[in-house]
């Protein structure tokens, strides 16, 4: 094999490796990575919503949610983030979490029929957790409770 063929093979190999890394990074940024949130003594398996596109879609494509599942919205900075129930198929509890990993606001039993109304916290949050409706009451979750995130960042 001559040197030109070696460079061609190397180019193709580098191209595929770069493409693989780019696709995997893009998938992670879309919120498809599974992580865990420890809250109210429970471990919740969450999909991450990291991009504006993933955050706008949220759980709207889902038909249901198990008691140990949820979605964690991770924002770049703390702010007042209103949430709505557009295109949702089931009720949820929405939990706003501050930078200090304390619960700052809870909207229990947010119903799909509430759209276009938005639920707005009273304090800044950096994270928002969506879980099955009734989770907050069942696990006695309250404002001020601590949260542990394992989001692989």
Short description:
By secondary structure, this protein is an alpha+beta fold. Helix content is 26%, strand content 36%. The chain has helices at 3-32, 52-57, 135-138; strands spanning 34-39, 42-49, 69-79, 83-84, 92-97, 103-110, 118-119, 125-132, 147-150.
Give me the CATH fold name of the largest domain.
Answer: Jelly Rolls
In the CATH hierarchy, the architecture of the largest domain is Sandwich
* Distinct helical segment count: 3
* Strand tally: 9
What this model shows, in words?
This protein is α+β, with helices and mostly antiparallel strands and 153 residues long. The chain has two domains: 30 residues; 118 residues, Sandwich (Jelly Rolls), CATH 2.60.120. Helix content is 26%, strand content 36%. The strands form two sheets. Strands 6-5-8-3-2-1-9 form a seven-stranded mixed beta sheet. Strands 4-7 form a two-stranded antiparallel sheet. The longest helix is centred in the N-terminal third of the chain and has 30 residues.
Task: List the topology elements.
Layout: H1 3-32, E1 34-39, E2 42-49, H2 52-57, E3 69-79, E4 83-84, E5 92-97, E6 103-110, E7 118-119, E8 125-132, H3 135-138, E9 147-150
Parallel strand pairs: 2-3
Antiparallel strand pairs: 1-2, 1-9, 3-8, 4-7, 5-6, 5-8
């Amino acid at each position: 094999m001559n040197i030109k063929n070696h460079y061609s093979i190397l180019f193709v190999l580098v191209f595929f490796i770069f493409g693989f890394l780019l696709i995997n990074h893009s998938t992670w940024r879309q919120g498809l990575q599974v992580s865990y949130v420890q809250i109210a003594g429970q471990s919740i398996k969450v999909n991450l919503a990291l991009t504006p596109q993933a955050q706008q879609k949220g759980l709207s494509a889902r038909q249901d949610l198990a008691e140990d599942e949820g979605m964690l919205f991770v924002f770049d900075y703390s702010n007042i983030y209103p949430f709505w129930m557009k295109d949702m198929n089931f009720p949820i509890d929405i939990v706003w979490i501050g930078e200090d990993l304390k619960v700052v606001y809870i909207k229990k039993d947010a119903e799909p029929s509430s759209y276009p109304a938005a639920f707005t916290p009273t304090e800044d949050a950096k994270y928002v957790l969506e879980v099955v409706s009734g989770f907050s009451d069942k696990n006695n979750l309250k404002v001020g409770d601590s949260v542990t995130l394992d989001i692989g960042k």
